[in-house]
């Protein structure tokens, strides 16, 4: 039976993962509207962030699925889609 | 080889148990202070040893942002920090980008702490994923790569991995490359950080680490003590250094290598002697020119008598007139960084005319009957210094430094 995801909670968790990755100077400055470019997320950062998301939610997140993400919100949207599809299997 | 291409040391940097800069580290060596203490952060009651030379108050965030630092294992962090000091000391800036500037670093174990953490996650916690930077952090060439990126060095850059001789091999390769005209300057040295639980158990199981203190050349010596950190030297073509008007610590005059082709862990006096003899020959140094030997001096039962025998066989009757000490009881056995720690000590001894004492050596073993510097540091005018490194695997590398005049 599919679980209903708390989308707000997932966004908050992703923001927390990104803040942890960037260090304490970013705390409280990131929202779902924040562009990944503005916080200088490069490919090497994305690989680590995706790993931490995978670890947190115990799912596989193909890098191709998140490569087009422009904002933090895009990232959490992709994750919600993945979590939903993994529950339907 | 171009005979007129002399090579000098113009910059030094260190992160070690006796200090996170050369001023503090040299002060400790000069005044007989040790950085060895009970290892913090681990339950040493389960090991055959309790003491080690851990770095104190090291904050990589003084030079790296959180993201840069998180990409590095400790052996890279310390290498970058020591390089920052050495580069500033040498006053290098635009020269770093010159394609004739190289980097040759040594390490014995690379980022083994990163691997150890990964193993704990896989086998201990049952995880099936590892941090995606695991490989990039543990690969032994990571420190050299980070130094090249941080300081914009685009010339020949690589890592040498010969256990406890790694740094000496690295420094020697760069010395020869500069002398031959392949490089004009190089960032050289090494780093190792052995304090992870898995690595400490491996060392403990080998029964070569002392259960108390490191006492090189003492009849009651019981083994080595591990140390961590990085040592970096800037080698430079003498004419370039003079043109820049910078302080010259010493001249590098000779480098010799050999392999025992004998036992994996038992050292050979013959192999060690061949490396020492080769360094003397390379530098056209005769025995009477040698003032001091910074010995490999691990404090193990096996090393010290074999090294003493090698010194006697190479230097003959002059051996009694040469001062010998080991600085390992102060900074610990730095493994891949050992040669760099000791090259820094050798350069400082050469330029200051002060020979650091062998701490904890109270009763010299008759099998090591040499002029071992014990008690206080000794003040002398130094001509040539030899710095010995002998590694597991029987791989030997010896450097010869000379007072620059």
Mind explaining what this structure looks like?
The complex is a heterodimer of chains A (89) and B (405). Chain A is built from 4 helices and no strands. Helix content of chain A is 58%, strand content 0%. Chain A has helices at 7-22, 43-57, 63-66, 72-88. Chain A has 89 residues and is an all-alpha fold. In chain B, a hairpin with a 3-residue loop joins strand 14 and strand 15. The longest helix of chain B has 17 residues, at 74-90. An 11-stranded mixed beta sheet of chain B has the order 5-4-6-7-1-8-15-14-9-10-12, with helices on both faces. Chain B has a two-stranded antiparallel sheet with strand order 2-3. Chain B has a two-stranded antiparallel ribbon with strand order 11-13. Chain B has helices at 22-30, 66-70, 74-90, 112-124, 134-138, 142-151, 166-180, 197-206, 238-244, 269-282, 303-315, 328-331, 338-352; strands spanning 7-15, 37-38, 51-52, 101-106, 157-160, 185-192, 229-237, 250-259, 290-294, 323-325, 354-355, 371-372, 378-379, 384-391, 395-402. The two termini of chain B are 22 Å apart. Helix content of chain B is 34%, strand content 20%. With 405 residues, chain B is of the alpha/beta class. In chain B, helix 3 (74-90) packs across helix 6, helix 7 (166-180) packs across helix 13 and helix 10 crosses helix 11. Classes of the chains: A mainly alpha (89), B alpha/beta (405).
